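Bug #77: duplicate submission created two jobs. Keeping one. Sequence:
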Amino acid sequence: MIRFVRVRLLKPDFVTCSHWVRPRSSYYSYLYDYQRNYYDDVIDYLDRRKRGIYRDIPRPQTWAERALRTYTQRLGTTENALKARNDPDLIHRVHFCRLMHDYHIKDYFARRFTWSI
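Kept job's structure:
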């Protein structure tokens, strides 16, 4: 005897007739910032010349100069500057931790070896 089982088919989860919006990638914004920093000096030069302020023609920037301008503008300050700002606090904490460690080690050895004598 053959039994028939009813199977309920599920509809796939998708929306028809919709427009897919490509997500903005950070890679594209990185290239945009890099390119903008390359042409910033030239655009500034042309704007000032249009207003009647003449200055030297900007020279082409090296890769390192453009990359440095890109990172410092994005972060505001360089990573080393942020680390240097926290150095005095770090030195104080390390010094205090060393003092506390020395105190507890002396106390530990004093308690351990006075009982064994």
